[in-house]
């Protein structure tokens, strides 16, 4: 088997040669593309000398010609092997022209230059530019780009690249050209090109300095009417970034292109963002409220990258969170300001706990700033993005908003146009604020999720409350012994009526040692502490709260996040009690009265804040529940969660029906946050009613499906029906398909609904769907909608005892790895926690992992993940 090399942060050194400018010419044809690059090159005399060869990256391309300083080189005068181009002896400064031939139409990896339907487009992050031309494909090589594109004018009337349009014109034989120039230096991963038969919607934005920016969104002609929301989100993001961070857009033109085949959500190429169409196209008939929110967040995220990622970029890929964690934090803050801060925070933390905490405890665990990698694409992870955002949030909390803004201003001032590190960022925050973040740096270099335990001691005679904290982080392959972290704990106190108690020790407590205590004096009897408000640190929290305390916090805490979190802890405790009974084969009895009473109170509160109410009333899903156990009981968790949901539904059915009717009058065209909140509460309660699975309830849900006038309501009812045993399920699925079969993004939803359905069919229905004429492994969205949803959102199906789910997913991984390693690697991570299941499932998952790694020569992407998952068992 091929030996894959590992790159280490400790081995980083500057490039031997700098590129002062690059002029690109693309000659696009149906069966190939010719790419000519003319570079001005200069030796980096700090680390190289006259004997140092020039070595460029190159992959999956043919070298047609090489011209150095006007001299044509023969193949023997340069090296081209092992994905490297080499000139063995070069002068200190010189020009180099390389012409390459590539085949975009055959590029199924969707990295570099490829065809998506009838459109040429690029994806160069992380290391795709080397698939276009020979180049030092690393983020610290920043240069200015110009690009001339020629193509058939009828087939490809739109020719786009980064920066400003310099010139266009017609050529012989029905061809035409466009010349683009980007005045800002950038790394190769930010280069972009698009050529196709596209239309655009246009708008303008006036900046704070009264510059008028042209805004364009390019899509296929039939999708022109679905871009309005994306344009609105873009203008909101531009205004917000000026107000919150003082960042004004720097070019005169900002362009977005939506393509159907894209491995990621979107890409922040300077001035020319390429988006997965999922995050651009939306109408109330075809997109859900979640889709609208997702578009708003992703549009903003890519725009914010213009400063946090483009103007200030990365010295090396180990620093990925410097741009991604920081930009996720920025887009989270934007979405919070545009909608509900509490609801957004809950959604982000729920995602973090379910996904990133799981990542931290698995074989691919790594620090926010990794120390090594085999395949960079594998490190676009929740640790880098979401935990990275939490690290930025903690810095903001520790410094305070004013000093954090001062630190950001200084960061942009010092490093504009440069490639830097996370250390540079943290040092700048220290410089601007005067706050020592020395211990805090461990959040970047130490892997794992800290666990914080809080135990209360009440002294009724002295009126003293002591909170005793302890922190531990389990050892792993990265560090056997973990150091104490700097953990910010936001704390409040509530009296017995739920009123805030003003105490000098309320606010921010800095936990910096393995154990520490915080003493509150002169506090009234029966006060309750509210800790980690707003989820002030990404840690697992254990408390000595009683069930009564949790019910009180769920109903009365003035911090909305902690109200939701108290509800979750109450649900988890009830599930744990029921699971213990299940495993002992004891009767489950009924749902605990305190849980039902707390749910009733939350249902009352939902009238005043429907969005928050919907979050509080939502049970943790089966994956979230499983994350709490070292040994995951698939059937037991499924059984007790269904039991709890049905028990609650029986208790509140009549009240739920009343609220459903109250929230039913929202116009489908209304996508305000208030309207979305009503729909979310209504559809959650419909799902509770549907869980009872009686014929009358099935008729009720089916009626809601037929009455739905928005995609939000239609897909919600269909999802509920898909979990039921009614014949309405088949009718609704068929009706939905026939209605929407010409809209690819809606059909993705149809596949997903069935992929996550928890029935007795195990993997059989998903296997059958993989043979559907509309399913294709060539489209990443379709793969994610069926195979991805099944793997990550249907534990009962994926983990069916006979192993059919494992075999099906492994078959898809093997097939995909030949064409698109990035997507296959995402899927294979579904096996990462195989050691946490029963012996039968362990054996079957291990067998499939070994089959994946031995049945063919796996890609580096897949090999890295599988080898780490199987560590010590091969």
Automatic annotation (TrEMBL):
Keywords: Aminopeptidase, Hydrolase, Metal-binding, Metalloprotease, Protease, Zinc. It catalyses: Release of an N-terminal amino acid, Xaa-|-Yaa- from a peptide, amide or arylamide. Xaa is preferably Ala, but may be most amino acids including Pro (slow action). When a terminal hydrophobic residue is followed by a prolyl residue, the two may be released as an intact Xaa-Pro dipeptide. GO terms for molecular function: alanyl aminopeptidase activity; metallopeptidase activity; zinc ion binding. Its EC number is 3.4.11.2. InterPro entries: Aminopeptidase_N-like_N (IPR045357), Aminopeptidase_N-like_N_sf (IPR042097), PepN_Ig-like_sf (IPR038438), Peptidase_M1 (IPR001930), Peptidase_M1_dom (IPR014782), Peptidase_M1_pepN (IPR012779), Peptidase_M1_pepN_C (IPR024601), Peptidase_M1_pepN_C_sf (IPR037144). Its cofactor is Zn(2+). Residues 547-870 form the Peptidase M1 alanyl aminopeptidase C-terminal domain. Residues 448-543 form the Peptidase M1 alanyl aminopeptidase Ig-like fold domain. It comes from the Bacteria. Residues 230-440 form the Peptidase M1 membrane alanine aminopeptidase domain. Residues 49-190 form the Aminopeptidase N-like N-terminal domain. GO terms for biological process: proteolysis. The keyword Zinc applies. The keyword Transferase does not apply. Pfam families: DUF3458, DUF3458_C, Peptidase_M1, Peptidase_M1_N. CDD domains: M1_APN. Aminopeptidase N is involved in the degradation of intracellular peptides generated by protein breakdown during normal growth as well as in response to nutrient starvation. Belongs to the peptidase M1 family. This is Aminopeptidase N.
């Amino acid at each position: 088997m091929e030996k894959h090399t590992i790159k280490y942060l400790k081995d980083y050194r500057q490039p031997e040669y700098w590129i002062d400018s690059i002029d690109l010419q693309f000659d696009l044809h149906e069966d190939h593309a010719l790419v000519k690059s003319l570079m001005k090159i200069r030796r980096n005399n700090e680390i190289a000398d006259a004997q140092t060869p020039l070595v460029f990256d190159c992959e999956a391309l043919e070298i047609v010609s090489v011209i150095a300083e006007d001299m044509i080189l023969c193949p023997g005068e340069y090296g081209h092997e092992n994905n490297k181009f080499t000139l063995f002896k070069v002068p200190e400064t010189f020009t180099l022209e390389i012409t390459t031939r590539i085949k975009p139409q055959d590029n199924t990896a969707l990295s570099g230059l490829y065809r998506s339907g009838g459109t040429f487009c690029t994806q160069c992050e992380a290391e795709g530019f080397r698939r276009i031309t020979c180049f030092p494909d690393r983020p610290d090589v920043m240069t200015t780009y110009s690009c001339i594109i020629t193509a058939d004018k009828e087939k490809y009337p739109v020719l786009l690249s980064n920066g400003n349009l310099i010139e266009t014109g017609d050529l012989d034989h029905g061809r035409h050209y466009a010349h683009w120039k980007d005045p800002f230096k950038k790394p190769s991963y930010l280069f972009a090109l698009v050529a196709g038969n596209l239309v655009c919607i246009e708008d303008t934005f006036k900046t704070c300095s009264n510059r008028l920016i042209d805004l364009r969104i390019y899509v296929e002609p039939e999708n022109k009417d679905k871009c309005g929301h994306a344009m609105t989100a873009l203008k909101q993001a531009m205004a917000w970034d000026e107000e919150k961070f003082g960042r004004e857009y720097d070019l005169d033109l900002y362009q977005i292109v939506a393509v159907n085949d894209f491995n990621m959500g979107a890409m922040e190429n300077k001035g020319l963002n390429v988006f997965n169409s999922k995050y651009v196209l939306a109408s109330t008939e075809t997109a859900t409220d979640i889709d609208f929110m997702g578009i708003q967040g992703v549009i903003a995220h890519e725009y914010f990258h213009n400063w946090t990622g483009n103007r200030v970029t990365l010295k090396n890929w180990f620093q990925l969170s410097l741009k991604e964690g920081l930009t996720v934090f920025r887009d989270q803050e934007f979405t919070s300001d545009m909608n509900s801060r509490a609801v957004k925070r809950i959604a982000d933390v729920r995602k973090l706990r379910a996904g990133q905490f799981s990542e931290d405890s698995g074989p691919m665990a790594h620090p926010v700033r990794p120390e090594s990698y085999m395949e960079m694409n594998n490190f676009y992870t929740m640790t880098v993005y979401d935990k990275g955002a939490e690290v930025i949030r903690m810095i903001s909390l520790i410094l305070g908003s004013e000093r954090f803004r001062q630190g950001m201003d200084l960061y942009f001032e010092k490093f504009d146009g440069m490639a830097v590190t996370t250390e540079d960022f943290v040092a700048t925050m220290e410089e601007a604020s005067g706050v020592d973040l020395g211990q805090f740096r461990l959040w970047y270099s130490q892997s794992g999720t800290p666990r914080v335990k809080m135990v209360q001691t009440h002294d009724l005679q002295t009126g003293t409350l002591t909170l005793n904290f302890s922190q531990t982080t389990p050892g792993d392959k990265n560090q056997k012994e973990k150091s104490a972290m700097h953990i910010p704990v936001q704390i409040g106190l509530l009296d017995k009526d739920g009123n805030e108690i003003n105490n000098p020790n309320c606010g921010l407590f800095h936990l910096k040692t393995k154990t520490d205590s915080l003493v509150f004096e002169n506090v009234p009897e029966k006060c309750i502490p509210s800790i980690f408000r707003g989820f002030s640190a990404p840690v697992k929290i254990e408390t000595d709260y009683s069930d009564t305390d949790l019910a009180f916090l769920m109903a009365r805490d003035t911090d909305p996040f902690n109200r939701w979190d108290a509800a979750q802890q109450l649900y988890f405790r009830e599930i744990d009690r029921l699971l213990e009974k299940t495993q002992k084969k004891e009767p489950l009895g009924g749902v605990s009265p305190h849980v039902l009473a707390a749910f009733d109170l939350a249902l009352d509160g939902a009238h005043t804040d429907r969005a928050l109410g919907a979050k509080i009333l939502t049970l943790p899903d089966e994956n979230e529940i499983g994350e709490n156990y070292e040994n995951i009981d698939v059937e037991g968790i499924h059984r007790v969660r269904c039991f709890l949901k049905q028990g609650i539904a029986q208790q509140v059915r009549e009240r739920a029906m009343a609220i459903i009717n109250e929230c039913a009058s929202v116009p489908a065209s209304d996508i305000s946050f208030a309207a979305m909140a009503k729909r979310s509460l209504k559809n959650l309660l419909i799902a509770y009613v549907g869980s009872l699975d009686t014929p009358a309830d099935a008729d009720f849900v089916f009626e809601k499906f037929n009455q739905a006038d928005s995609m939000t309501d239609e897909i919600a009812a269909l999802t509920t029906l898909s979990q039921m045993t009614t014949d309405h399920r088949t009718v609704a699925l068929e009706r939905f398909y026939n209605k929407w079969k010409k809209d690819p993004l809606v059909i993705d939803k149809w596949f997903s609904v069935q992929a996550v359905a928890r029935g007795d069919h195990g993997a059989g229905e998903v296997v059958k769907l993989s043979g559907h004429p509309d399913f294709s492994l060539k489209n990443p969205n379709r793969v994610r909608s069926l195979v991805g949803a099944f793997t990550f959102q249907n534990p009962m199906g994926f983990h069916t005892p006979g192993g059919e789910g494992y075999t099906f997913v492994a078959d898809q991984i093997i097939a995909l790895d030949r064409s698109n390693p990035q997507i296959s690697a995402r899927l294979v991570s579904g096996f990462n926690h195989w050691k946490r299941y029963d012996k039968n499932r362990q054996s079957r998952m291990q067998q499939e992992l070994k089959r994946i790694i031995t049945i063919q020569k796996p890609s580096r992407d897949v090999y890295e993940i599988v080898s780490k998952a199987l560590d010590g068992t091969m």
